[in-house]
């Protein structure tokens, strides 16, 4: 398994979870990181051998990766992220004589407007998908919207493309969520609770949430808990004070076991503005908590497309967000479509899909060699 670096925390976390999961199923994993090195390796399974090429950038790692492949002679190469995908395909398909199958994983892509002509959509997709991807033996898309773009570009045969959602929900989420909340700043009774966990690069979304609270507070008894938000607390506290929200908005910083608060919330508001699926939002869904997401990325749009008790609101529109909050805190939580949808992102389903795909590729390789 190959990843670019630890700078993209989302991909690094997914790669680690998949590697540990496959190792628990008795597969031996060499986990290669092209750039950078972590301080702590204790979270890796004994069946995982970490290798750090420590290159300045992923583009310069192909030669070293090719030498590693020739030395290790793996049954299969699985890469995650654009830099790793290109490096792996360049290393295995053009720099080695070994016929090792390569599966690449796409975690992000462009969004192509459906109102464009089909030819224009195909042209955009062809630009967005690297030509080298046609050399991959399998292309794994972590969203159906990514699969759609890959299919449009027509460089990769459809039979090589599959969708495997990222494993964002592990079984311990339910055990952790059941633990008591003992923090004295959290009101476990009384007012309806709006919980959000801060994500980087979402300043405008955080402001939208506070303005929505200012609109909603006079229509419903609410309390908001903004967890995390380390880099923006001063800015957000000033805005909350200016909006006269000091009495109903609490910003405790980072917390341990945030799943406890996801379970206790009447509604979870995701302030993510990226195309990837917000992990905290899916975990809230698994716990049956109504969720609201900003309609600014393909991930949340795809997850909430066919579920009840899930709202998409326009990015920047505090009035619409206020309306969604007021509807969410009053909705029927006995509806289980949120939890059902969250199962698509369970660790077991992802591992089953990865294992099935990788074993089929190994079987094809054995057939070809024979």
Automatic annotation (TrEMBL):
GO molecular-function terms, A-Z: transferase activity
Domain Glycosyl transferase family residue range list: 192-343
Glycosyltransferase subfamily 4-like N-terminal domain sequence ranges: 18-167
Taxonomic superkingdom: Bacteria
Keyword set, alphabetical order: Transferase
Protein name: Glycosyl transferase
Source organism of this protein record: Pseudovibrio japonicus
